[in-house]
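HUMAN: You are asked to prepare a plain-text protein record giving the amino acid sequence and the backbone structure tokens, both parts labelled.

ASSISTANT:
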Amino acid sequence: MKINDIRNKFWYYSKELPDIHSKEVLDIPQYLSLSILLIFFSIFIFKNYAIGISDHNEQIPIIFRVSDSSYLVNDWFVNQTEGFSPRFFFSQFINFFTKFLSIEIVYFLLFIFFLGITILSIYLISYILIENNLVSLLVSLAILFGPRISLGANWITSNILVPSTISIALILFAYYIYFLNKKILSFFILGIATLFQAILGLLTTGILIVYFLINDKNKKAETIDAIKYLLVYSIFGLIGLAPLFLVSSNISNPDIFYILTYMRHPHHYCPFSFPLKDYLMFFGMLSLFVLAIYLKYIPKNPDLHNFCIISVLLILFLGIIGTIFVEIIPLTIIGKLQLFRINPLIALFTYPYIFYMFLGYISKIFPYLKNMQIHKFKYLIIIFAILFSFLIVVQTDIKLKKTENDDLYKWIRENTQENAIFIIPPTMEDFRLRANRAVIVDWKAFPFKDSAIIEWRDRINDITNNKQNFKRYRGFNTYSQLNNDYLSLNNSYILYLKEKYNAEYLVMMKEKQLNFTEIFNNSQFKLYHI
């Protein structure tokens, strides 16, 4: 096979190519596909939505500080995040709505709204690419319910509201607007997305700009247009990036690089730490994508096909850069860019091809499926979908999930001073939010400022009495080591921590005996006054 023949199987180079998109593929009416999507979307919310878990343990206290300057006034982490930090715009945004509604209701409504934008944008983008409602439905459901086929422990959707929930929704909507040829509006929305998650906004904007410059032949005109779009993006984009540059400008300290990547976030930053399973699934997805292209299960529009190919290649290229300059030749500035952050977007550009190919073969095996007379029940289906979805969503539990330590947290809230400082196990990540008390440090709440990153490391080492080698802890696999080191603290060392950090209380695992006044205990922990 000649080089040009291979090239034309994978890439459109000319808009004058003959129409090769004549495959008979199973489809369903749009009202049916959207009704099904609405039902499954509501089921996802009901079964998966949560508040007060994972990243909420570090993000919600920041919001509470915005609304109340006296909240956890002695908490080191909350103090470090106060002001113009990368979470500033997200915190201000949430705080605005909490003036009218409880934070539980605000989080729930915003989660539904922005996740809804995400899923609808995925559906619409898939439809623009393939022009098949069933493909769009399957892509949306696969991203919502399917496995996370990406590298770097990130995904397009989640079950909690975090800054990236808002940013991804706006980015995907901006991509949809871009496909409608409303480029100025698209880059304006990307600028707003950068306010909520600066790295996501920056990288996705960069991909659009590079594609725009690569795809068209009139380089001079396209360069001028690209500058114009960047100026539109910068209206909000530069504001969104400003906190990142202000608090994270040190690119020379090797300790910062190590703490950020290998110690705290290897699951996000370090490709050599990613599970083998993730690589197998990821390259399996890419193989199916290449097969679909080879078999001509591709968009009719050459520009759309080129966009998907170039976007996938650019994201893969960023992954290669992220691997080289994190694992092989460490560069702090590359590490801070989190180049695997947008790796999940590959699924957005490959899933439509894969499901299109899948349905193409299903149509050959079951041709009678294309003759369904489902349209006779059109309005009944729509009404049922809306009512059923509403009844499911309103039953969603929007309260903080109960934990086995709720009795401990309640006792602390009711019997200790609001400005008290606690020594807690470093893996007890929900203490700050649920007990409403300051702590010396915990593993989950990671600061943004470069100087604070160093102090976070020192505090972690202090409360685990790890004086020899700060590189002992690496990623979440170190949880058991952290707990064992914390459990080894003795009475004299705890008094040292008390003096250094003005701590008044200590939470210790129940099996540990200490010579302090025990004031509460439950099935797992003892609370001491020191």
User: Anything to note?
Assistant: The CA atoms of residues 403 and 430 lie 10 Å apart.
